[in-house]
Design goal:
By secondary structure, this protein is α/β, with parallel strands linked by helices. It is 18% helix and 37% strand. The chain is built from four helices and eleven strands. Helix 2 links the parallel strand 4 and strand 5. The longest helix has 11 residues. The two termini are 18 Å apart. Belongs to the dihydrofolate reductase family.
Length: 166
């Protein structure tokens, strides 16, 4: 089994989004997301998928939905009806990513090896939240601060966690 990484941009209060949209615009975080996920399978919930204008290029989308009639006409999209079905599709991959939303992150946390979290410094009103990162299960191994600038209205920190061996 390869490594499974959760990747997310998360506010200080664990806010992820509201009304199926992001709460901030961070071009450098988008670039990092693209750089890390390109060429890999990405697992997401239906609402996360539907928040994209079109499927993301150079990535195979595995979309989890309870709706048995849900269908997407695109060669880089596969529909499944459970997280276990999604994980079965990536078991032979070296690396794959879970990209949201809140419910999928909560379900996937026990199965993931790495967390790539962009911590957005601020508290936001939201309807989707990231699960708490339990320090007894996760070790922070890298941190890189990015201050506000002309393209970023808020400062943020890239944080990489690896699952502790229990």
């Amino acid at each position: 089994m390869g490594k499974i990484t959760i990747i997310a941009a998360v506010a200080d209060n664990n806010a992820l989004g509201k009304d199926n949209d992001l709460l901030w615009h961070l071009p450098d975080d988008f670039k990092r997301f693209k750089q890390l996920t390109t060429g890999h399978k990405i697992i997401m919930g239906r609402k996360t998928f539907e928040s994209f204008p079109k499927p993301l290029p150079n990535r195979h989308h595995i979309i989890i939905t309870r709706d048995k009639g849900y269908h997407v006409e695109h060669p880089n999209c596969t529909i499944v009806h459970s997280l276990s079905d999604a994980l079965a599709l990536v078991e032979n991959e070296d690396l794959s990513f879970v990209i949201g939303g809140g419910e999928i992150y909560s379900l996937a946390m026990p199965y993931c090896d790495i967390l790539e979290v962009t911590r957005v410094h601020g508290d936001y009103e939201a309807d989707a939240f990231f699960p708490e990162i339990d320090p007894s299960n996760w070790k922070l191994v890298r941190e890189e601060y990015h201050g506000k600038d002309e393209k970023h209205a808020v400062d943020f920190t890239y944080r990489t966690f690896i699952k502790k061996e229990n």
